[in-house]
Amino acid sequence: MNARLGLAGGNPPPPPPPPPPPTDNTAPVIALGAPADGSTQPANTQLTVTANISDPDDAVASAVMVWEYNGQVLNFDCASPPSGFTCTHNGASYSWTLSVGSGPRAWTIKATDSHGNVTTSARRTLTLGSGQPPPPPPPPNGPTVQFDAPAAGTTYSAGSSITIQVTATDQSSAIASAQLRWRSPSGDALFDLSQVSATDWAATLQLSSAAVAGTRNLVVTVTDGNGTKASTPSLVIRVQ
User: Model confidence at 3, in pLDDT bands (50, 70, 90)?
Assistant: First the structure.
């Protein structure tokens, strides 16, 4: 009866398999923003580099700024920027901010999607040099003091005199006193210095004719009107 109806015997053939999913061969698209290629930017400040990164059929997995500086090539991944650098992104908008000095710089942006497709932007250059240098540090708030005499390493004979002189300054108050600590083989002694000018303090010491040969260590400590102290480094002389 099947033959009379023109039907073939057995089961019908299976349906064809579904087509494979489309392959993602489209790399991310990068549109560089600021700063402009070849521009001059302020030196010794912070610089922000921007870019718009998108992918028509996939997600952007990583965005890296490749920064060229003094012969070095540094990679700043937006997902994990190093200390001192920041990177933010909102949708397709990315921005890297870093502290810069002066001189020429260059950079590219490298983007990778989740399928490993990579795009590298055109290389841009700039010059850092139109800004003013950073301001000098503020003056110290306390006193400063340094030896003018004697010179380190000077040798004196027993019975001779030694002139001690220092320069002491203070940006916030007047120097109120200066005191010498004299360290010899027999122990320490303290001597007050007298003010001889606006910044100079001095004293003259007389060595005993029986002074023991050897080294002497000298330190002068000054105190300003606020009670703040400062001391010189130890200065060494010899007695013979």
Answer: very low
Q: How big is the chain, counted in residues?
A: 240
Q: Which of 186, 141, 193 is nearest to 164 (CA)?
A: 193
CA 74/CA 67 separation, integer angstroms:
5
Cα separation, 38 vs 124, whole angstroms: 7
The CA distances from residue 149 to 143, 158, 172, 223, in Å, are 19, 18, 26, 19
Give the model confidence (pLDDT) of 27-76 as tens digits. Answer: 899 999 999 999 999 988 899 999 999 988 888 999 999 999 888 999 99
Q: How do beta strands 175-184 and 187-192 pair?
A: antiparallel
Per-residue pLDDT reduced to its tens digit, 13-22: 788 887 766 6
Q: Among 230, 131, 125, which Cα is nearest to 172's? A: 230
Cβ(196)–Cβ(111) below 8 Å:
no
The tokens describing 149, both together, are 């005499």
Q: For 143-166, what is each residue's pLDDT tens digit?
A: 999 999 999 999 999 999 999 999
CA 203 to chain CA mean position, Å:
44
Q: Decide: 204 and 161 in contact? Cβ < 8 Å.
A: yes
